[in-house]
Design a protein that fits this description.
alpha+beta; Ribosomal Protein S5, domain 2; 3 domains; 17 helices; Ribosomal Protein S8, Chain: A, domain 1; nuclease; Heat Shock Protein 90; ATP binding; 21% strand; MutL/Mlh/PMS; 629 residues; eight-stranded mixed sheet; five-stranded mixed sheet; hydrolase; DNA repair
Length: 629
C-alpha cells in the first residue's frame, strides 16, 4: 500500500494557522498592538483604511529589531518570549507563540520597517504570501512600523465572509479599547481613512477611561480597590443608574490582558443585586493582578479565556469588593436602625449659633389663693333626662346651626340657616344575581387584558389573543418606514433642547444615520464630538425615552448595520419600533385596547412582527369544547 500521509507545505500550514489567529482585520490590529506593547513602546499609532481590509498599519517607538530578528520574526513558532515549556506558566508578555506575524504574512502583503536604538541603519522587509520579495537597509527612526495590506488577497472565500465596513470598524475599535485601557501609560493614536478617531495621551486609568468614552463618564465611575494574598483588584464600576440593556462597557483585565469570563461577570452582577432592574447590565473596568503561576492562558486561540487555580475564592473576593465599594460611596442603600433622627440638625439651622432660652415667671401666681368649686363650674349643654334618641337625628335633613341652641332648631326643622344641607342614604337590601357587570362597548366589542401582556378579543367562533408589544411594534414599524421613505414625518418642538452625551464613535454613528432620523421626526440642532443637541422629536415618543431609544439604536448599528439603501432604513425602523413599542406590564384601558387592534389590522402585514414573530393567535370554540370532554 502506498504512503498517503505527507507533510504540508509551509505556506499551506501558515494559511491553516491564519484561520485560528486572523479571523478578521481586528485580529491583525490586536496582534500588532500587543507586539508594540511587548517592545516597550511609549507611543503607538494605528492607521486603518477601509475598515482594515485595505491597510492596517501600526507604528511604535519601541526597541525595534535587528536584521536577523526582522527576518526570523516571520517564521513559524519564532519568539523571544519563551525558551522552555515552564515559561508558559510564568508569562508577563502578550504574544508568546510566535504565530502571529507568520500567519498574517501568509494571507496579506506585509511591509516591515524597523531599527534598534544602537543601530545606525534599519531594515526594510517586504513579504507577499509568506514569500520574502525584498530585504534592504533603510533609514528609518527607532522602533517598528508594520503595514498589512490587502488582507485575504489570496483567500477570496475568507474575504467574502467579512462583514460591512462599519461592523469591521467596530471590531477594530473594540480591540483598540482593550489594549489602550490596559496600558494607560502608553500614548495611543488611531486614524481611519485619514480622519482622527482617537488621540489618547499618556495618563492614569481613570483619565484613560474618560478620554475614550467621553467626559461625562467621570461622574459615572465608582472606584474599586482591594488587595489580598491571592489577588489585587483595582478599577471602576459604573453607578447603577447608568446601567444599560447592552453589554458594552464591560472590561476584565488579568495581568494587563483582556479576558472574557461569564463566571466573574456573574460575581459583579450579583454585587449589584437589588440596585438595578432585571433587564439591564452593569458597566465596569476591573484590573485583576494574580500570580502568573496560578493561571493558564494558553487554553484558547485568541487568549481571551484563561483558567484560574482557585476560581471560587476570586469570585467571592470580587463580589465582596464591588459590593463594599458601592456601599462605601453611598451608592447602595444602608439601613441604620440605631441612629436617632431626632439628633439630626435641620439644614436651615446648620449655620446658626444656639441662643440661651428665656424664662418668664408670673410673680402673682398662687395656687392656694382661690379654690375652684365644683358648683361654680358651668357646663355649656344641659342634658335633659327625658331626651329620646329620636332627637339626635332632628335637623339632619335641613341642616342646623351650631351657634343656636339645639331646642330652637328642633322646634322648626325646616329652617335653613345657610349651611349646605345633606341627606342620608340608606343601603338597599335588594340583592342582584349578577356577579360581574355586563357592560358592552358602544361598538358591541368586548376586550380584556390578560397579565398586562395579552389582549383577548372574542370572535364569532372563538377568541383572538394579541401580544400587545409585538402588535405595537408592527404598527410603529410600518409608520416609521413610511415616514423615512416618504419624508413626511411630524415633529414636536421642545421648549428646552435636549443635551445628550455620547462617545465620539457613537456620535459618528448618529451622524451617518442623521438624515433617516430626521425623516422620522428628529431635529438635530447640533452634533459635536461628544454632544448631541436635539430640538425636536417625533410625536410618537416621549421626551424621557429619547436617550434609551438612541442608545439602543447605536447598539443595533454596532452589531450589524447594512451599507445603505432600503436595508438600512428597514433596520432603523425595526430598532426604533422595538424601543418605542408598549412594553409588557403596561395597563391599557378599553379605548386603548380597541384602538391597538384596529391599527394592527390596518397594517399590511398584521400577522407577524418586524422580527417575524407571530403577533396573535386564535382559539376556536371546538378547541375549547375538547378541553371539557
Amino acid at each position: 500500500m502506498a504512503d498517503i500521509i505527507q507533510l504540508l507545505p509551509d505556506h499551506v500550514a501558515n494559511q491553516i494557522a491564519a484561520g485560528e489567529v486572523v479571523q478578521r482585520p481586528a485580529s491583525v490590529v490586536k496582534e500588532l498592538l500587543e507586539n508594540a506593547i511587548d517592545a516597550k513602546a511609549t507611543s503607538i499609532t494605528l492607521i486603518i483604511k477601509d475598515a482594515g481590509k485595505t491597510l492596517v498599519q501600526v507604528t511604535d517607538n519601541g526597541s525595534g529589531m535587528s536584521i536577523t530578528d526582522a527576518r526570523l520574526s516571520f517564521e513559524r513558532h519564532a519568539t523571544s518570549k519563551i525558551k522552555s515549556a515552564e515559561d508558559l506558566f510564568n508569562l508577563h508578555t502578550k504574544g508568546f507563540r510566535g504565530e502571529a506575524l507568520a500567519s498574517i504574512a501568509a494571507i496579506a502583503h506585509v511591509e516591515l520597517k524597523t531599527k534598534t536604538e544602537n543601530s545606525e541603519i534599519g531594515t526594510h522587509l517586504t513579504i507577499e504570501g509568506s514569500k520574502v520579495t525584498s530585504q534592504d537597509p533603510a533609514v528609518v527612526p527607532k522602533g517598528t512600523t508594520i503595514s498589512v495590506k490587502n488582507l485575504f488577497y489570496n483567500i477570496p472565500a475568507r474575504r467574502n465572509f467579512l462583514k460591512s465596513n462599519p461592523v469591521e470598524t467596530r471590531h477594530i475599535i473594540d480591540e483598540f479599547h482593550r489594549v489602550a485601557l490596559a496600558h494607560p501609560s502608553v500614548a495611543f493614536q488611531m486614524l481611519h481613512n485619514g480622519s482622527d478617531v482617537f488621540n489618547l495621551p499618556a495618563s492614569n486609568s481613570r483619565q484613560r477611561i474618560v478620554n475614550i468614552f467621553g467626559s461625562k463618564t467621570n461622574e459615572k465611575l465608582v472606584p474599586v480597590s482591594e488587595e489580598t494574598e491571592i489577588i489585587k483588584i483595582e478599577g471602576f464600576v459604573m453607578k447603577p443608574e447608568y446601567s444599560k440593556k447592552s453589554r458594552g462597557e464591560q472590561f476584565f483585565f488579568v495581568n494587563d490582558r483582556f479576558i472574557k469570563s461569564p463566571y466573574l461577570h456573574h460575581a459583579v452582577s450579583s454585587a449589584f443585586e437589588g440596585l438595578m432592574k432585571n433587564d439591564v447590565h452593569p458597566g465596569y473596568f476591573l484590573f485583576l493582578e494574580v500570580d502568573p503561576h496560578s493561571i493558564d492562558i494558553n487554553i484558547h486561540p485568541t487568549k481571551t479565556e484563561i483558567k484560574f487555580d482557585d476560581e471560587h475564592a476570586i469570585y467571592a473576593m470580587l463580589r465582596a469588593t464591588v459590593k463594599h465599594s458601592l456601599g462605601q460611596f453611598n451608592i447602595a442603600p444602608v439601613l441604620d436602625f440605631e441612629r436617632d433622627k431626632g439628633f439630626d440638625t435641620p439644614y436651615e439651622y446648620s449655620k446658626k449659633s444656639p441662643t440661651a432660652p428665656s424664662i418668664e415667671i408670673d410673680s402673682d401666681f398662687n395656687p392656694f389663693k382661690e379654690k375652684a368649686k365644683q358648683g361654680n363650674i358651668k357646663f355649656p349643654f344641659k342634658r335633659e333626662q327625658n331626651q329620646s334618641w329620636e332627637s339626635l337625628y332632628v335637623g339632619l335633613k335641613d341642616g342646623f346651626d351650631a351657634a343656636k341652641p339645639l331646642e330652637d332648631q328642633t322646634s322648626n326643622p325646616s329652617t335653613s340657616l345657610g349651611i349646605n344641607s345633606f341627606e342620608m342614604e340608606f343601603e338597599s337590601e335588594e340583592v342582584t344575581g349578577n356577579l360581574f357587570e355586563n357592560k358592552e362597548t358602544e361598538t358591541g366589542q368586548v376586550t380584556f387584558q390578560l397579565q398586562n401582556k395579552y389582549i383577548v378579543s372574542p370572535l364569532k367562533n372563538g377568541m383572538m389573543i394579541v401580544h400587545q408589544n409585538l402588535a405595537h411594534q408592527r404598527i410603529l414599524y410600518e409608520e416609521l418606514l413610511k415616514n423615512i421613505t416618504v419624508k413626511e414625518a411630524v415633529s414636536q418642538q421642545l421648549l428646552f433642547p435636549l443635551q445628550l452625551h455620547f462617545s465620539k464613535p457613537d456620535v459618528e454613528i448618529i451622524e451617518k444615520v442623521r438624515e433617516q432620523l430626521e425623516h422620522t421626526g428628529f431635529i438635530f440642532s447640533e452634533l459635536k464630538e461628544e454632544t448631541v443637541e436635539i430640538s425636536g422629536i417625533p410625536v410618537l415618543i416621549l421626551e424621557s425615552h429619547v436617550v434609551n431609544l438612541l442608545n439602543q439604536l447605536v447598539h443595533d448599528i454596532k452589531e450589524d448595520v447594512p451599507d445603505s439603501g432600503f436595508s438600512q432604513n428597514d433596520m432603523l425602523a425595526k430598532s426604533m419600533a422595538a424601543s418605542m413599542a408598549i412594553k409588557t406590564g403596561v395597563l391599557l384601558n378599553r379605548e386603548e385596547r380597541e384602538h391597538l387592534i384596529n391599527q394592527l389590522f390596518a397594517c399590511k402585514e398584521p400577522t407577524v412582527s418586524p422580527t417575524n414573530k407571530p403577533v396573535f393567535t386564535t382559539l376556536e370554540m371546538s378547541d375549547l369544547d375538547k378541553k371539557f370532554m
